[in-house]
Design goal:
- The complex is a heterodimer of chains A (603) and B (250).
- Chain A has four domains: 46 residues; 116 residues, Immunoglobulin-like (Sandwich); 173 residues, MetI-like (MetI-like fold, Orthogonal Bundle); 117 residues.
- Chain A has 603 residues and is of the alpha+beta class.
- Chain A contains 18 helices and nine strands.
- Chain A is elongated.
- In chain A, strands 1-7-4-5 form a four-stranded antiparallel β-sheet, with helices on one face.
- In chain A, β4 and β5 form a beta hairpin.
- By secondary structure, chain B is of the alpha/beta class.
- Chain B has a domain of 73 residues.
- Chain B contains nine helices and ten strands.
- The longest helix of chain B has 18 residues.
- Classes of the chains: A alpha+beta (603), B alpha/beta (250).
- Chains A and B meet through α15 and α16 of A and α2, β6, α4 and α6 of B.
């Protein structure tokens, strides 16, 4: 019994070792492991060359003066008289050869005299058309003498005299930053700012997203099917109304888009009215619920003047930006900054207004749904559920079908509209029939799952791949790199953040909820104070990663130092590439240090 | 008047935590809830303000059915019910003052509280409440810098900011030493007597029950085992509540 067991055990062990050996043997095969090449002489020579180049980063250069010493040379020897070498016994540097002519491939001894001590330089063969071919690299000894045996190049015979030339370059004056060093500096600054922008934008979006992606905050949100169906329909209607309204408003505002004074006036007036409406609607005493009429008027007022304010405000920003770019001179980038801020707002306004309308109509209808579910008899609620869930399902799936149509251009309404809508309606119907009329659905959990899925999907796409798409969208340059990195930052940070939210202690949340606080207040008072330190820590960590990522995002055209680095590697200019690698190492190391110092301060 | 009618709670995949519990509490009573750990005391208290959703039964407070209340109605009910916790449940990184003011959240407009803005009256009251529990000078310290007894007093001040009609105290002194325990119980007693606030307080030590409670109820395995004045808990009752092998301490 015992023996049998131990036999089985050793058989299992032997088998797993055999499988392990097989796996690694196959891995060697697949990855082309060949240690023979590592000892290959040719490859070792090139490795040495590259490593030496990398050890000499192209950072400084000198102004040089060039001294050329040459003798005429005939290739091949002309017929008839044999050319003689010039007589050269002076104190100046000169070279001489064993013969003034030779056939291709013959050996020749070249001597140099009176050169500066230990000087180095190329010994070139110069054709009659001025093309250089390096014969040897000479180095003079302490007396300024060198001697080399060289092979005469195999070239087409030419009648005229060609030349053998020794060139000596001497540095004049002190060292200067090389062109490569200056370019590296420019690009490394660009790199740091790409990382800064990507981290800032990413963090701003990731923070609210992380709350939706936190299980402990979402799991308690449930609502009955009636309310869910109402809110889906409401969101869709609201978004449609919102986007239509903004488009209409933007065309309405078009004529005064260039009139700064009008826009500024509009900004201030709409802001003043907005503020007044806000004060009036909020009031101070929450003990009495505001009357329905007051709430409706104040909501409409807020919406109208909020939209007007947003549009005036963003257009003014653009106008001010354009206006001050010129007079600011070298600080014109500040004008551009303001213009671009305005541009962002002009872009975001329609989206935000659409979302605002969606949220408003969605939540109002959802409340109606909740009421219906709370107060009507179950049979009627069931009927309403069946109707609404079918409509909502059809609408959602029709939207999905529209997405499919956009990507695949099927241009067949049966496939991209009717069938999806039918399937959606059927699914809604099934949902409505199978669930008990008033039982709450885990809406929070569903939203959580969808958000998590999107985040995981986005995170699994490497920023390099995103950068390729961004480059196509906004063109080669640092902007594309920032966009790609920002998107990846959102996905990565939102996940890290939400895990922090999930690990906070539940006690304070319970306590704040017990005071009658709503969900927003609970987040602000019980959640946010607990997550500030880890959020700062993760943001710094992400900044660190972004600096590292932005150094290579240029490989695909995303700007930054990677662009320069890949260029120099492709040109085989390893000394220049070495300078860029050095810059990356310095920046990454110092970022690492700075971020750890800041993290320590806050945590 | 708070009426608990046939209240039951079954956790998913667990046994009945509360089994058909019914009792009434007149306004202004100091009611002790006793029982072993896991007997359902915390569940009972949390069902009253629906931090835990009961499975069956009703809770009626001044003719409002709490169990059937919508989210909005529930919030207005909750803000009249203060709660004090065994582990204080303060937001440790926030200041003591902010913790106390958070008791006001149910009364404050969410838009205002988003910017951490409370009315001057609330701020003045917060200082007054801190003074009442004797730690006014700690108002601007971080909550986690305070000792346990001080933190529990902040918890009481926070509950009092709600201007409550009921205070639910879930083992408020279980994490404190006996001297501090008495001082916290005295604060609760004072609130109960001076402001006519109903106090439901779960307790472990019977001497505290005898000293402070007007009435006691006992739970065992979610069932109501005893309902009456504390001095009626004799040895026989005690064994019934805590099991045959239990020995009285304190």
């Amino acid at each position: 019994m015992n023996n049998k067991k131990s036999f089985k055990k050793s058989l299992g062990l032997g088998l797993s070792i055999a499988i392990g050996i097989f796996i690694f043997a196959y891995a060697f095969q697949v990855t082309d492991v060949d240690f023979g090449t590592t000892r290959d002489e040719v490859r070792q020579t090139s490795l040495t060359r590259v490593l030496r180049a990398l050890a000499h980063p192209d950072l400084v250069e000198y102004e040089t003066s060039e001294l050329n010493v040459e003798i005429p040379f005939y290739l091949p020897c002309p017929e008839g008289e044999t050319p003689s070498l010039p007589d050269n016994a002076s104190n100046e540097p000169y070279i001489t050869a064993t013969a003034a002519c030779a056939g291709p491939g013959e050996m020749l001894t070249v001597e140099g005299f009176n050169f500066p001590a230990y000087v180095q330089g190329p010994l070139n063969f110069i054709t009659s058309s001025g093309v250089k071919k390096q014969l040897e690299k000479f180095q003079a000894d302490a007396d300024g003498y060198f001697i080399y045996e060289i092979e005469v190049p195999k070239r087409q015979p030419v009648a005229e005299a060609q030349a053998i030339r020794a060139t000596v370059r001497t540095n004049i004056g002190g060292p200067m930053w090389s062109k490569n060093a200056i370019a590296t500096w420019d690009k490394i600054i660009e790199t740091i700012f790409i990382a800064l922008l990507a981290t800032t934008i990413g963090t701003l979006i990731a923070i609210p997203t992380s709350f939706i992606a936190a299980r402990n905050l979402m799991v308690d949100n449930t609502s009955p099917l009636t309310s869910v169906a109402f809110s889906v329909i409401g969101w869709l209607i609201g978004i449609w109304i919102g986007s239509q309204t903004t488009q209409w408003l933007l065309t309405l505002f078009e004529p005064i888009a260039d009139n700064l004074a009008l826009n500024l006036a509009g900004t201030f007036v709409s802001f003043a009215i907005l503020y007044a409406v806000l004060r009036w609607s909020i009031g101070t005493d929450e003990d009495e619920k505001a009357s329905l009429a007051k709430r409706v008027t104040s909501t409409i007022g807020l919406a109208v003047f909020g939209i007007a304010f947003a549009i005036f405000f963003s257009i003014s920003f653009r106008a001010i930006g354009t206006l001050i770019t010129e007079p600011l001179g070298s600080f014109g980038f500040f004008g551009n900054f303001i213009f671009q801020l305005g541009e962002i707002m002009v872009m975001l306004t329609p989206a935000l207004i659409a979302i605002f309308f969606g949220a408003f109509v969605g939540s109002s209808l959802s409340k109606i749904g909740q009421r219906i579910s709370d107060y009507m008899p179950a049979a009627q609620v069931k009927l309403i559920n069946i109707l609404l869930a079918s409509i909502a399902g059809a609408a959602l799936f029709a939207l999905f079908g529209a997405g499919v149509e956009w990507f695949y251009q099927i241009a067949n309404p049966v496939k991209t509209l009717y069938i999806p809508a039918g399937v959606g309606a059927a699914l809604g119907l099934i949902l409505a029939i199978t669930t008990t009329a008033k039982s709450p659905l885990p809406t929070g959990l569903i939203i959580y799952t969808i958000t998590r899925t999107i985040l995981n999907g986005t995170r699994s796409v490497e920023p390099l791949v995103m950068a390729i798409i961004a480059v196509i969208w906004v063109g080669i340059g640092p902007f594309a790199g920032s966009l790609a990195l920002a998107l990846h930052t959102v996905a990565a940070l939102a996940k890290l953040y939400s895990e922090q939210v999930e690990s906070i202690s539940a006690g304070p949340i319970e306590a704040v909820q017990a005071t009658g606080a709503n969900q927003l207040q609970t987040i602000v008072y019980a959640v946010v104070p607990q997550i500030i330190p880890p959020y700062i820590s993760f943001t710094m960590y992400r900044w660190d990663i972004n600096v590292r990522m932005s150094t290579i995002i240029g490989f695909v055209g995303g700007g930054g130092i990677g662009f320069l680095l890949s260029q120099n590697i492709n040109l085989l200019d390893y000394r220049a590439a070495s300078a860029q690698m050095l810059a990356i190492a310095v920046v990454v190391a110092s970022m690492d240090y700075i971020s750890s110092v800041i993290r320590e301060k806050f945590v | 008047m708070l009426e608990i009618k046939n209240l039951s709670k079954k956790y998913e995949g667990g046994p009945l935590a509360l089994d058909d519990v019914s009792f009434n509490i007149p306004q202004g009573e100091f009611l002790a809830v006793i029982g072993l750990s896991g007997s359902g005391k915390s569940t009972l208290l949390r069902c009253i303000n629906r931090l835990i959703e009961p499975t069956a039964g009703d809770i009626v407070w001044n003719d409002i059915n709490v169990t059937a209340a919508s989210d909005d109605e529930l919030r207005t009910v909750r803000r009249k019910i203060g709660m004090v916790f065994q582990h204080f449940n303060l937001v440790s990184r926030s200041s003591v003052l902010t913790n106390v003011l958070s008791g006001r959240l149910g009364y404050t407009n969410p838009a205002m509280s988003f910017f951490n803005k409370f009315s001057q009256e609330d701020v003045d009251n917060a200082y007054k409440e801190l003074e009442r529990v004797g730690i006014a000078e700690k108002a601007h310290q971080r909550a986690d810098e305070l000792s346990g007894g001080q933190q529990q007093r902040v918890g009481i001040a926070r509950a009092m900011m709600q201007n409550p009609a009921i205070i639910l105290a879930d083992e408020p002194v279980a994490s404190l030493d006996p001297v501090l325990a008495h001082s916290i119980m005295q604060h609760l007693e004072k609130i109960n007597k001076e402001h006519n606030v109903t106090v439901l307080c779960s307790l472990h030590f019977l001497d505290l029950v005898h000293q402070y409670a007007d009435r006691a109820i006992a739970l065992n395995d979610g069932k109501l085992m005893f309902d009456g004045p504390p001095n009626e808990i004799d040895d026989a009752k005690f064994k019934e509540i805590y099991g045959k092998d239990a020995e009285r301490v304190g």
